[in-house]
Description:
By secondary structure, the protein is mostly helical. Helices cover 69% and strands 0% of the residues.
Amino acid sequence: MGATDNEIIERIRAGDSRKYALLVNRHKDKAFTLAVRLVGDRREAEEVVQDGFMRAYRNLEQFRGDAKFSTWLYRIVYNLCMTKVSRRRWQPEIVDVHRGEMHDNVFVDEEEIGFDERLENEELKQIVVDEVNLLPEKYRTPITLFYLQEMSYEEITEVMNLPLGTVKTNLFRGRNLLRERVLVRLKGEIV
């Protein structure tokens, strides 16, 4: 196993700025997934993530290590996304990011099922991804952070700057709304 984020940060602070590439490589995919889910556009998400990594680098001396580096970085990316979204009239765009990464019992190992079942599973994955993208931001963001970024409740509270109770409530309501929407879509496709 390689160096921890904090060990890499200490080496950067000691003058080895090239080590920052290790942090970028380690966190770029999840930061991009978060950004594209929040801003709804891949190109804008790339800009936000790049800006987020640049801001994190410029402010690395301010990172105290109270939280994980990833949580601190995602907070920066989240804030940049919210600024971008608030500056424009946002229309949700259905974006397929890392299809099927939603960690839920809905998805199964594709090698263990036949072609027809695999096709149905892919269709279900797409329905779930589509419906997550259409959720209101206050539900979409915590669901993305919890399931795709695999963050704890506490980390989500730090990223979103919300009380723990609000995060839990929004996750609960978001999951219920998502479940309802997926079931409606499934019933519509069966009929």
